[in-house]
């Protein structure tokens, strides 16, 4: 039987397990990336593991998230990352060089290789034919040390693309369409693979927009073939030598399929507060707007920016709308300046922000109270913009630019003829903001700088023999890691300071949670379906650990968050019968007798609700390796125990 692209890459990188969907496999990782909001923890953990030199083919640390520097904290973290990477053999992309995924696509991605990154949108590089996955910082640290990355062997969803996109309809509309079909849980445990004639009509940055937002499907990864278009892209980046063709076998078998006829797509928008809450822009036309933001790792390529500039040219942004533009990389920004497109945007009234995540992660440009914001980003979770009651809609650059001019939701296909965008054959490549690490022989001389914002990582706790505690919080379905550990200008600077960060844990859902958890000495959390979707931030496990959370009982978990819970020794349990979710309330006292024993080897655990007197059957779907990690109180303890044995 023939193999799909993902299956081929997995086969070439398999170090343990068998390629049976749903079972655990270990993969050799060729490349890693980190960003600054998760990177500090990843490097602290890398240091704790005691490896001197990274063992990957390439590891890069980017600074793109915490670039506001409203106090000393972010700058401290940047300097720590700059020095620790220099010492241990990792390249450092300086602030100003761009958003990790955009720069990685331009400068480093290689078809057929594996990449993990401490950011959920790492699958952006799937646009180049890489198997790229988001992971917790600790998993990235382990991979940098030469360890395998463990996932469940995914099923493959084959998405056949037919036809060609109409004028003013973009790659963003393709992935919004797929999200409308599959939903935010539709990709869990799966890789989404694109094939068919329509693939040839999409450039690499367009493919990358689509693979980027595969994260919103909950997918393990998304991948396109590597073909002549990939070769041309790599050539434009002056690295044609990195080209490798990657294609599925003719007789490849997909576990599920979806067909998308590109020629029938229309401009779409994901409505508040979920990326799968998709409606045609035509149905929203006329709605008044307060803000338009262009950029983020989803839509900040040269193609996106030139499209926006062409629509804004000789026009003025509507007086009731504030508009921001954040180009994805220095390469893009400097080319926009050279070709005059930057002037077109500035003249129209767009406010140019630096090449970084910016408003996407709530780092500035928060909308006004109850404001309506149109963003070319990938997430519109409640409060993520920094304004609790804002309404964020996710749209294509075409829709964003058209609407910025009119001040109301505008279907760009009503604008007439689309501008013809011609991309340069050769991009303006200049890697002067990528710092190379010190040679191994000089590494000992590099001093790692640690500012006062960098606090120790909380230690994992081994599970108790019997768990007796309180259900300290109960939440509903689709809880995101933005709910668990919010971001934004006030909170992000404390990503290296877990005690301070804990004051904000779950406050989007319940302002009292941190205090209550502290007072009760922790407990368990009850969650609904798809608990922990969204960002890869391991802080959503680390901070609950610090607050004494021993287990999360949910209807189901998102992949990266479940791995993070295990990495930090918090037990991820599911209800055998999802209806039992209703048989436990916040504040109930609970007991799980034989807790540690069950973790060691049982699939079922019995939770006794001492408040109601009822018993509930829970499941622990963990592999023997994961059970060992949990018994040690997390991956760091497990790694140390292994070294000492
Ligand atoms: C995000 O888009 O939510 C982030 C910020 O990039 C996160 C990482 C983080 O929380 O630092 C992600 O996607 O993993
Ligand atoms: Fe940055 Fe936003 Fe992309 Fe996350 S989704 S990496 S915050 S641009």
Keywords:
alpha/beta, binds iron/sulfur cluster, seven-stranded mixed beta barrel, globular, binds alpha-methylisocitric acid, single chain, six-stranded mixed sheet
Model description:
The chain is an alpha/beta fold and about 650 residues long. It is built from 21 helices and 27 strands. β22, α17 and β23 form a beta-alpha-beta unit. α10 crosses α12, α10 packs parallel to α13 and α20 crosses α21. It is globular. The model has no long low-confidence stretch (mean pLDDT about 95). Bound molecules: alpha-methylisocitric acid (MIC) and iron/sulfur cluster. The site of iron/sulfur cluster has 11 residues, from loops.
State the gist of this model.
The chain is α/β, with parallel strands linked by helices and 645 residues long.
Level of helix content? 25-40%
**Largest β-sheet summary:** 7 strands, mixed, barrel
Q: Note the total helix count.
A: 21
Q: Alpha-carbon distance between the termini?
A: 43 Å
Ordered list of secondary-structure elements with their pairings:
Layout: H1 5-13, E1 14-16, E2 24-27, E3 31-34, H2 36-49, E4 58-62, H3 72-88, E5 91-93, H4 100-107, E6 114-117, E7 131-134, H5 137-144, E8 149-152, E9 155-162, H6 171-182, E10 190-195, H7 204-212, E11 221-223, H8 228-236, E12 256-261, E13 268-270, E14 278-280, H9 281-284, E15 291-294, H10 302-312, E16 322-325, H11 330-339, H12 341-348, E17 351-352, E18 372-375, E19 391-394, H13 397-406, E20 434-435, E21 467-474, H14 481-484, H15 498-501, H16 513-520, E22 523-526, H17 539-546, E23 549-554, H18 559-567, E24 571-575, E25 589-592, H19 595-601, E26 604-609, E27 615-619, H20 624-632, H21 635-644
Parallel strand pairs: 3-4, 3-6, 4-5, 6-7, 9-10, 9-12, 10-11, 15-16, 15-18, 16-17, 18-19, 21-22, 22-23, 23-24
Antiparallel strand pairs: 1-2, 2-8, 5-20, 13-14, 21-25, 24-27, 25-26, 26-27
Helix pairs in contact: 2-3, 2-5, 6-7, 10-12, 10-13, 19-20, 20-21
Bound molecules: alpha-methylisocitric acid and iron/sulfur cluster.
Alpha-methylisocitric acid binds next to helix 2.
């Amino acid at each position: 039987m023939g193999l799909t692209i993902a299956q081929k890459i997995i086969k070439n990188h398999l170090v343990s397990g068998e390629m049976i969907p749903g079972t655990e496999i270990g993969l050799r990782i060729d490349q890693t990336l980190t960003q600054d909001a998760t990177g500090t923890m990843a490097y602290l953990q890398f240091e704790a593991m005691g490896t001197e030199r990274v063992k990957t083919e390439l590891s890069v640390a980017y600074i793109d998230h915490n670039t506001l520097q409203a106090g000393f904290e972010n700058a401290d973290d940047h300097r720590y990352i700059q020095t620790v990477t220099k010492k241990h053999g990792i390249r450092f992309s300086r602030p100003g060089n761009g958003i990790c995924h955009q720069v990685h696509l331009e400068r480093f991605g290689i078809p057929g290789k594996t990449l993990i990154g401490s950011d959920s949108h790492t699958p952006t590089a799937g646009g180049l034919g890489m198997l790229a996955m988001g992971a917790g910082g600790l998993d990235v640290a382990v991979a940098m040390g030469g360890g395998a990355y463990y996932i469940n062997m995914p099923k493959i969803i084959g998405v056949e693309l037919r036809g060609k996109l109409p004028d003013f309809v973009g790659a963003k509309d393709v992935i919004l369409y797929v999200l409308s079909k599959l939903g935010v849980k539709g990709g869990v445990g799966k890789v989404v693979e694109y094939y068919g004639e329509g693939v040839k009509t999409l450039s690499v940055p367009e493919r990358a927009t689509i693979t980027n937002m595969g994260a919103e499907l909950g997918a393990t990864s998304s991948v396109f073939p590597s073909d002549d278009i990939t070769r041309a892209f790599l050539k434009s980046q002056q690295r044609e030598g990195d080209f490798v063709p990657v294609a599925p076998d003719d007789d490849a078998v997909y576990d599920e399929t979806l067909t998308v006829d590109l020629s029938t797509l229309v401009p779409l928008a994901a409505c508040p507060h979920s990326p799968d809450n998709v409606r045609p822009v035509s149905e929203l036309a006329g709605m008044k707007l307060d803000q338009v933001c262009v950029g983020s790792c989803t839509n900040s390529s040269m193609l996106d920016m030139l499209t926006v500039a062409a629509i804004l040219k000789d026009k003025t942004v509507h007086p009731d709308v504030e508009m921001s533009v954040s180009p994805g990389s220095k390469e893009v920004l400097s080319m926009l300046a050279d070709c005059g497109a930057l002037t077109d945007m500035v003249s129209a009234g767009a406010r140019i922000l630096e090449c970084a995540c910016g408003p996407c992660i709530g780092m500035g440009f928060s909308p006004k109270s109850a404001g309506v914001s149109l963003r070319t980003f990938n997430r519109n979770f409640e409060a993520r913009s920094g304004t609790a009651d804002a309404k964020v809609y996710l749209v294509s650059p075409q829709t964003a630019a058209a609407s910025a001019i009119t001040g109301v939701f505008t279907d760009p296909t009503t604008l007439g003829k689309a501008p013809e965008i011609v991309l340069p054959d050769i991009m303006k490549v200049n890697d002067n903001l990528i710092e190379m690490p010190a040679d191994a022989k000089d590494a000992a001389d590099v001093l790692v700088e640690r500012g006062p914002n960098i606090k120790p990582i909380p230690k994992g706790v081994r599970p108790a023999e019997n768990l007796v505690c309180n259900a300290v919080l109960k939440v509903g379905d689709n809880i995101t890691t933005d709910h668990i550990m919010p971001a934004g200008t006030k909170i992000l600077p404390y990503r290296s300071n877990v005690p301070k960060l804990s004051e904000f844990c779950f406050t989007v859902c319940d302002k009292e949670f941190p205090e209550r958890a502290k007072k009760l000495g922790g407990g368990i959390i009850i969650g609904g379906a798809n608990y922990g979707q969204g960002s890869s931030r391991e802080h959503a496990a680390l901070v609950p650990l610090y607050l004494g959370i021993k287990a999360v009982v949910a209807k189901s978990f998102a992949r990266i968050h479940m791995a993070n819970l295990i990495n930090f020794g918090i037990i991820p349990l599911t209800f055998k019968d999802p209806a039992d979710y209703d048989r436990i309330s916040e504040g109930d006292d609970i007991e799980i007798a034989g807790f540690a024993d069950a973790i060691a080897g049982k699939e079922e655990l019995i939770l006794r609700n001492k408040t109601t007197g009822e018993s509930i059957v829970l499941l622990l779907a963990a592999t023997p390796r994961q059970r060992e990690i949990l018994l040690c109180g997390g991956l760091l303890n497990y790694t140390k125990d292994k070294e000492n044995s």
